[in-house]
Design a protein that fits this description.
Layout (H helix, E strand, L loop, with lengths): L5 H12 L4 E5 L6 H12 L2 E6 L5 H9 L4 H11 L9 E6 L5 H13 L3 E6 L5 H4 L8 E5 L5 H7 L3 H13 L5 H17 L3 H10 L2 H22 L4 H16 L16 H13 L3 E7 L10 E10 L2 H8 L8 H8 L7 H15 L5 E5 L9 E3 L1 E7 L5 E9 L8 H10 L6 E5 L4 E3 L2 E5 L7
Parallel strand pairs: 1-4, 1-5, 2-3, 3-4, 6-8, 11-12, 12-14
Antiparallel strand pairs: 6-7, 8-9, 10-11, 13-14
Pfam families: AAA_14, DUF4143
Organism: Bifidobacterium panos
Protein name: ATPase
């Protein structure tokens, strides 16, 4: 069991909720939800019961269907079936993959009101229509999002907790790491980009350092996702598959924006909107939308017709990019690991940064403007985030973030953006492979510091 940040979130929930809410953990399949909640049950309670609805027998489902109005009998039967004694206010009941049995989710309202035990639900595709129709969604849920392991969690898994603490301290003080630590951190970042944050893939890499074996695991996960699309996407399955297959090609382009024309010359957003929602709700992708006005409250200026579509995990993007081959060539891993440009590193680094920003709680937004005949007003900024600005009494300001995969690069778009909107901005960030350097409000930070933003 790897150390995961969700455990701290659950500890805070337990202490603050005191039984008044149930925790609902949403996330993609295979990111470690079940493992994390079991570890929490073992460490924080006298006992716990985990009901896995992906394999619960009819005898268990009958308990939920027939005893929902008699909680004394409900708890007695559940305790007996799982051979686990329940202790009032000191036991946890986990509904794993709760979307597969919506009546259990509906029961949360009454179970929380009863107050005897704590409850955690886990699931994917929680919001899909078939999983919420005909049930009353309980208002007593405290929703938490869990994603693949971020770079900090990867460092923990690799035994580099002290190195990541040094990275955070360097970012906070705007002081570059010593060269030896910088090189070590960049190597670790490149390993993370290749392996990704799926716990099974990380575990294999920690134990074997074999990218080939890691690739096999990532391809198995992609196959699982393909099966899920066929099972759960209903009438949108074809569109969902088409979009998912197109993600690497769309990110390969210079501008990265998703072109609907790639799905068919007559494709319209109204036809594909439900398919994009399915992928986003399943957490298989991270959608990044165009914010047309760089002002605090960026969500008010979203253009839903202009967006980028990143893979939810960068390690899976590497495997998906070469899905037409039996295995990802070793040379791809070597080129990225040793900084020998042989593939389009730009799309991998930008995807990895998007993954870190999402993990840090940022809504993914970018800025793009094309002004015909006005080069000074035509620009694209990879990401826009809102951060407290130290030169404005820590009030929130918009910060542009540019991602550069090589040591030599231009800053034309960022220069134009700063010239037009400088009075609204806080610090501006360029994430690149080089050492940290700060020039006034412009911070050039190593890519491995993206999780610090």
């Amino acid at each position: 069991m790897f150390k995961r940040k969700i455990l701290k979130d659950l500890e805070n929930w337990r202490n603050n909720s005191d039984g008044r809410t149930a925790a609902l953990i949403e996330g993609a399949r295979r990111i470690g939800k079940s493992t994390a909640v079991k570890a929490f049950g073992e460490s924080a309670y006298k006992s716990y019961i985990l009901v896995d609805f992906s394999q619960a027998p009819n005898s268990v489902l009958d308990i939920f269907n027939t005893q929902r109005d008699d909680l004394d009998t409900f708890f007695m039967m559940l305790s007996t079936y799982y051979r686990t004694k329940l202790h009032e206010r000191h036991s946890l009941i986990i509904f794993d993959e709760v979307q597969l049995h919506p009546p259990a989710r509906e029961m949360i309202k009454h179970l929380v009101a009863d107050g005897r035990f704590d409850y955690i639900e886990t699931g994917s595709l929680i919001s899909i229509k078939r999983n919420v129709q005909d049930i009353l969604i309980p208002s007593e849920e405290r929703k938490m999002e869990m994603g693949p392991m971020d770079f900090e969690e990867f460092c923990w898994a690799m035994g580099e907790e002290l190195l990541y603490e040094a990275i955070e301290q360097a970012f906070d003080s705007l002081t570059p790491l010593p060269d030896a630590l910088h090189k070590r951190a960049m190597r670790l970042w490149r390993e993370y980009v290749l392996v990704g944050g799926m716990p099974q893939a990380v575990s294999e890499y920690v134990n074997s350092r074999d990218f080939g074996q890691v690739d096999v695991i990532k391809r198995d996960i992609l196959s699982l996702y393909a099966d899920d699309i066929g099972k759960f996407a209903n009438g949108d399955a074809g569109r969902v598959r088409n979009i998912f297959a197109q993600v690497p090609a769309q990110l390969f382009k210079h501008e990265r924006k998703f072109a609907l024309a790639s799905l068919g010359k007559d494709a319209r957003m109204r036809e594909y909107d439900a398919a994009f929602f399915w992928l986003d709700d399943a957490r298989l992708v991270n959608l990044c939308r165009n914010a047309t006005d760089p002002t605090v409250g960026l969500g008010l200026y979203e253009d839903n017709s202009s967006f980028k579509c990143y893979m939810g995990d960068t390690g899976l993007l590497v495997a998906q990019t070469f899905a037409d081959r039996k295995a990802t060539p070793d040379e791809v891993y070597r080129n990225i690991l040793f900084d020998n440009i042989g593939v389009n590193e730009g799309m991998l680094m930008e995807n990895a940064v998007a993954q870190q920003l999402r993990a840090a709680g940022h809504r993914l937004l970018f800025f793009s403007r094309y002004a015909r005949g006005e080069a000074a007003r035509t620009m694209e900024i990879d990401f826009l985030i809102v951060r407290e600005y130290d030169n404005a009494a820590m009030k929130p300001r918009v910060s542009p973030v540019e991602v550069k995969s090589t040591k030599r690069y231009g800053t034309s778009s960022l220069n134009k953006f700063r010239s037009l909107y400088g009075s609204r901005l806080g610090k501006q960030y360029i994430l690149h492979p080089r050492q940290l350097a700060a020039e006034g409000d412009l911070v050039r930070a190593p890519l491995y510091m993206s999780r610090c933003l």
